[in-house]
Design a protein that fits this description.
Largest sheet: 6 strands, parallel
Number of domains: 2
CATH architecture of the largest domain: 3-Layer(aba) Sandwich
Oligomer: single chain
Number of strands: 11
Number of helices: 7
Order of helices and strands: EHEHEHEHEHEHEEEEEH
Strand content: 15-25%
Strand order of the largest sheet: 3-2-1-4-5-6
CATH class of the largest domain: Alpha Beta
Helix content: 25-40%
CATH superfamily of the largest domain: NAD(P)-binding Rossmann-like Domain
């Protein structure tokens, strides 16, 4: 898996540390600070490029056209948006952009950006989760001890009642989003295709186990209210 990170600030560096531990990971780091790039070359087993991530030559050198994902995590919303647009033009399958200004979220979605995350302390964990097949909520709550909320689609559990699903210890379905309405689930609540399940999990390991239970992990897009 080839992943490109543009902008190696605190979030980018934490994300690089997370991803560098994964097997079969081909990591490319881009930053405009030459001294920082020298440090990154020593700290990570990755291709480190010094340059402007908004320049197509740099993205080509990073192998963007063959990349599986690109994350724009500079300190500038404008730069991240431009980098995201360029990545989509290069047909990068999964483009993740860090944004501070929530007003830019709709615009980024409309130009084809796949995922948008907020620059919170949990952003690196959120991005890692997006890359590996399950999606953490935009507000991505990290709770003391490493617990967090994730949202999953029903997959193979559609049609079943909550009590019929063998959830692993350390996980709890706390809400179901159905047609923009939140439902507090009970044992007899039936899960329907198109639902979004909000699940509290205690660890990354439990979140991964949920992949086997729910199967389909691509979260269905929420409908917009007119």
């Amino acid at each position: 898996m080839r992943v490109i990170i543009v902008g190696i600030g605190s979030i980018g560096k934490e994300l690089a540390a997370n991803l560098s531990q994964q097997t079969n990971m081909e990591l490319v780091l881009i930053d405009s600070d030459e001294e920082k790039c020298e440090d990154l070359s020593r700290d990570f087993d990755a291709l480190v490029l010094h340059g402007d991530g908004t320049e197509s030559d740099i993205l080509d050198k990073a192998g963007a056209r063959d990349a599986d994902a690109l994350i724009a995590s500079t300190e500038s919303d404008a730069l991240n948006t431009v980098i995201g647009m360029m990545a989509k033009k290069m047909n990068v399958p999964k483009v993740i952009v860090k944004l501070t200004d929530v007003n830019l979220r709709t615009a980024c979605k409309e130009i084809g950006i796949d995922y948008i995350v907020s620059p919170t302390l949990s952003a690196a964990t959120e991005i890692s989760s997006l890359l590996y097949g399950y999606e953490i909520l935009d507000f991505s709550i990290l709770i003391k001890g490493g617990s967090r909320l994730i949202e999953l689609s029903p997959g193979q559990t559609a049609g079943k009642k909550i009590k019929e699903i063998d959830l692993p210890a350390g996980s709890l379905i706390i809400s179901i989003i159905r047609e923009d309405h939140a439902i507090v689930p009970k044992g007899n609540t039936q899960i329907l295709k198109g639902d979004i399940l909000l699940i509290l999990v205690e660890s990354e390991k439990i979140a991964n186990r949920l992949k086997d239970i729910f199967g389909e992990l691509k979260v269905a897009p929420r409908s917009r209210k007119s």
